[in-house]
Model the fold of this input.
Amino acid sequence: MKDELFTMMGEMPAMSPELLARMREEANRNLLRMKHFGEMVMNPKEPKVGPTPRQEIFRTNKSRLWRYESRRTIRTPLLFVPNLGISRPYIFDLMPKGSFVEHMTQQGFDFYLVDWGVFGEEDNGLTVEDAVTKILPRLARKALESSGASEMSVLGYCMGAPLSASFVTTHPDFPLKNYINMAGPIDFAHVGLFGKWLAPGVFDVDKYVDTLGTIPAEMVKMGFKLLKPTMDVSTNLNLWWNLWNPDYVSGFNALNKWANEYLPFPGEFFRQWVRDFYQQNKLIKGELMMAGRRVDLREIRCPVLAVQGGQYRAARVREAPDRRGEHARQGVRGTARWAHLADRRTRRLGALLAEGGVLAGRALVRASAGRGASSWPTTPVNSCSTCGSARWKRARRPGYA
Done:
């Protein structure tokens, strides 16, 4: 009877060669997934980060100035100022072919990076004013002296943008050639969720600092995790689907290392940062004082470039030209708007920065995780950032044709 039943059934349709090939490929990928998963759990390896050769030029207390090796064919050196606290700066030199620093040095830039260091309880008295008027000026002068150049471009990233902007405006004698704001806050009236969480009626910064002293790294990490609570879930799902790819796994390990190394804030720095910038928005209002001198953004009388990541939730550029390009910072993915490019030299710098962002971003996406118009910006009406948006009035640099 059983034989009769089987003989009455129609023949099974044959599988296409394409389907068989896909099934074999997926089976191989599953074997590789299990292999790599076992290696990550049973024999984890410390990822190698910061591959670009560099030299320590100067150290003051815990802060250091790094100079990266390059052909140095571009005459104007570039000083990169990242955020103080929050995360480690090696994210900009994460891995070969996924490094912003590597790209810029390959293009011939004399590239300097400010490494603020890791601050502890003994540094709780450090303020924003100290960073802007004591630490940063010394590092910038040493960079200029080391380069042998007569002028220097400054690139402020994230928190480094308002810090560097405050420095260059309160030190008019510093020979500034170009200024670049990459995803940095200027107008804190447009700061997204951080602005709501740190509002004066919601967050008592004095009580917070007086109670905790140092703002622990765990609290910093929690604040950023709350911006997108499902990020860990999506990250792990992406890891599983790409776990068969050894390049993806190595990139993920490097990025994951950085993503879990949050840094604390010195207590008094955090107090001034929240009160003067987030709660009172003194920078854009022209009310911020540093070492007895008013921080007047109109004193930035050089070509200015403002950059924003399209999916960078803590920062928005309200108005920008239509030209769009890829921009990625490790941990921030998406498109970028480049606003307010001035003259040929700055356009060249902007193109190289854009290309570096594209290369590093694509490498990081695989592993994990031109922009222009011409104007002389002198008066920021609103600015961009981990907290703001950017518009600039036009003016001509005095004495420049």
